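Priority: low. Protein: Magnesium transporter protein 1. Input follows.
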Amino acid sequence: MMRPPGRLAYLAGFLFAVALLAGGCNAYSSAYKVKRLEEKSSRNGLKLNAEDFDLFTEAPRNYSFFVTLTALAPEMGCAPCRQFDSEFKLVASSWGRVAVPGKLYFGTVDFSDGREVFQKLHVTNVPMVLHFPPTEGPDATGSDQYELYDLNRRGLSAEALVEHVEKAAHVKFPLRRPINFAYYATVAISILGLLALLKLVAGHLLVLVQNRKIWSTAVIGWTILMCSGHMWNSIRGPPYTGVRNNRPEIVAPGFQNQFILESQIVGLLYAAAAVMFVALVKKTPGISDPAMQRTAVLGFVFGFIVLYSFLLRFFRLKNGSYPFKLLF
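Result:
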């Protein structure tokens, strides 16, 4: 005849159930999670799925955990995601060089691997960075809620993220950007190419640099440009022309204002007068025929006087009290 179980059997069953519960609790303790994190960690942080995210972000935690939610698949077309992914991995790798086990971890959840995480957190914009602070230990914040990193205000740079991580996780580590050998190689090749080009054309450049005609033409041109009011136009940005009494106006009254067309006209008059003067000085001495030389001198002088008379007339149009004139 079978006896009913006694008190001792009930007690043994109760203790066995408690042991199972305790074993289950220990399996998801902070120590267990740190062990799993260390096993999964890589130099660029952890790649997480929905199950990993739930495990490592739920309480209890005695570590700081930064997680970026992103969408890196080409069909998603998220350019900021790809840009920030490299910066986030740079921060993770920089911490990996000096990492203290159980202190700080970095992870990434891609939409293709953890769609459930995006749905649970109601994520509509990516990339997004979440910080899960410790819930136990000396750095515990007393809250199980995550903190959101403001990418809109701080930007996508690794420098800004490192600054925030150091303050939030109470750590200190240098950001180490890899040497961009392609950039330095491009600069070196460009410099060498430029030096080779200079060596090939050095003789021609020397002739141009020592050419007095080129320098004198450049100086005269620059002087005419400045005397015409080009610099004033660049600084003040006046209109091209004006309108007065429903009629176009090309000369602004007074010496404190001018139109762009007005300065262009003055510049052309200055340039034409300069051509007459330079031709008088440089060309006429080389004419061998005395009659032709006399005609050229008279022609250039008369042309210069006429052009200068137009300039004075233009100044009188601008300001009626201007007292000087030449021919008209």
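The domain at 13-169 is CATH 3.40.30.10 (Glutaredoxin). Residues 15-27 have pLDDT under 50 and may be disordered.
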